[in-house]
Amino acid sequence: MTPMHTPLDSMDPTLVKFLNKQQYHIVGEHSGVKLCHWMRQKLLYNRPCYKERFYGIASHRCLQMTPTINQCTKSCLYCWRFQGFSETTLKRYDEPEFILDECLKSQKKLVSGFKGDERCNQTFWEESREPKHVAISLSGEPTLYPQLGEFIGLCKKRGLTTFLVTNGTNPKALENLDTLPTQLYVSVDAPNEKIYEKLCFPQIPKAWELLKKTLTLLPSLETRTVIRHTLVDGWNIGNEKDYAKLDKLADPMFIEPKAYVFVGYSRERMNLSNMPSHETVKKFGEKIGDILGYKLVAEEKGSRVVLLARDERAEKGRKIIEKQHNTK
Question: 2-326 maps to which CATH number?
Answer without folding.
Answer: 3.20.20.70
